[in-house]
Amino acid sequence: MPVPERAVERRRTPRVPVTGRLEMPSTGNVQVLDISRGGLLLSSPCRIEPGHRARLELRLSEAPVRLEVEVCRTSPEEPPGPGPFRLGAKLLPLDETAAAAVDRFLAEA
């Protein structure tokens, strides 16, 4: 039986591990696992439907950066991680300060 090929990477920008939490009303703490110029990977204690928007504050390499995100997909975490659900979220348009901070953080990683 042939060994399956690795999944093809479809991301346009690389992801970098980051530690942070996002407070979402009625969902509890959502843990930020990684970030790219286009989005974030999150771990959540409960299912959050695609289309849900939230604001978050992350400390990257300097002062806190405020970002707005929209959940694009939700799936069970396999293997189990910090929460039972893994969320893919896209970054909504960034202001100049936030965009520069994200770019610096990704370049330094």
Characterise this structure.
This protein has 109 residues and is mainly beta. The protein has one domain (16-108): predicted glycosyltransferase like domains (Thrombin, subunit H), CATH 2.40.10. 12% of the residues lie in helices and 46% in strands. The chain is built from 1 helix and 6 strands. It has one helix at 96-108; strands at residues 16-24, 28-35, 39-44, 53-59, 64-76, 85-91. The chain has a 6-stranded antiparallel beta sheet. A hairpin with a 3-residue loop joins strand 2 and strand 3 (39-44). The longest helix has 13 residues, at 96-108. It is globular, with a radius of gyration of 15 Å. The protein starts with 15 loop residues before the first strand and ends with a helix.
CATH H-level superfamily title: predicted glycosyltransferase like domains
Distance between the termini: 39 Å
Strand content: over 45%
CATH level-1 class: Mainly Beta
SSE order, one letter for each helix or strand: EEEEEEH
Secondary-structure content class = mainly beta
CATH architect. name: Beta Barrel
The main sheet comes to: 6 strands, antiparallel
Average pLDDT reading: 80
Helical coverage, percent range: 10-25%
Whole-angstrom Rg: 15 Å
* Secondary structure tally, helices: 1
Q: Which word captures the global form?
A: globular
Which strand order does the major sheet show?
Answer: 1-2-3-6-5-4
**Unreliable parts:** 1-9
Which characteristics define this entry?
109 residues; mainly beta; Thrombin, subunit H; six-stranded antiparallel sheet; 1 helix; disordered N terminus
